[in-house]
Amino acid sequence: MLIIDPQTYETTMDAGDQEKIQFTLTNSDGTPFNGTGATFELTAKNSLDDAIGAAAFRITSSGQASQFDLTNVATGVITIELIPANTSGLGGKRLILGLRVTDSATKPHTPRVASLIVRKNPTT
After folding, report:
1. How many domains does the chain divide into?
2. Which terminus of the chain, N or C, has fewer Cβ atoms within 10 Å?
3. Exposure string for 26-57, b = 16+ CB within 10 A, e = fewer
4. Would you state the pLDDT for residue 48?
5. Residue 11 lies in a domain
6. Which residues, 6 or more positions from 72, have their beta carbon under 8 angstroms from its beta carbon?
7. Which of the residue ranges 6-10, 21-25, 73-77, 96-100 would you say has the lowest mean pLDDT?
8. What angle do CA 76, 79, 85 make, to 5 degrees?
9. How high is the pLDDT of residue 87?
């Protein structure tokens, strides 16, 4: 079960589940961010101070392309699918989830930072 708070983007899911998270990205003036040609990275860490290598999981549009639906990226909408391998073994954790976008001019942006709560799954 996936729950996303529309105000804080806090995301709750069960460990080992397969869920899709949709992000709508906008420019500072409120217009849709055209992400054509950009790369995307979704990282979950226990702490903001953790090194990237210590992340609970990290998926990228270049490395795990099948988990990224960029069909509507020109209008700022991307969908990222978390698969069981991303969250298995993370039950009972509250992680920091960050989405990083590197646009075609190689400028990195982190438009979304939120909590990811991974509940223990009673069926696994």
Report:
1. 1
2. N
3. eeeeeeebebeebbbbbbbbeeeeeeeeebbb
4. 86
5. yes
6. 78
7. 6-10
8. 150
9. 94
Is it the case that residue 5 has pLDDT exceeding 90? no
Contact partners, residue 51, CB within 8 Å, separation at least 6: none
Assigned domain for 35 exists: yes
Classify residue 56: in a domain, yes or no.
yes
Q: Does an H or E element contain 71, and which?
A: none
40, 60 contact by CB (below 8 A)? yes
Domain of 17, CATH number, reads 2.60.40.10
* Whole-angstrom distance, CA of residue 5 vs CA of residue 66: 25
Look up the domain containing 54 and give its range: 3-119
Q: Residues of the chain with pLDDT > 90: what percent?
A: 59
Residue 35 and residue 73 in contact, taking contact as beta carbons nearer than 8 Å? yes
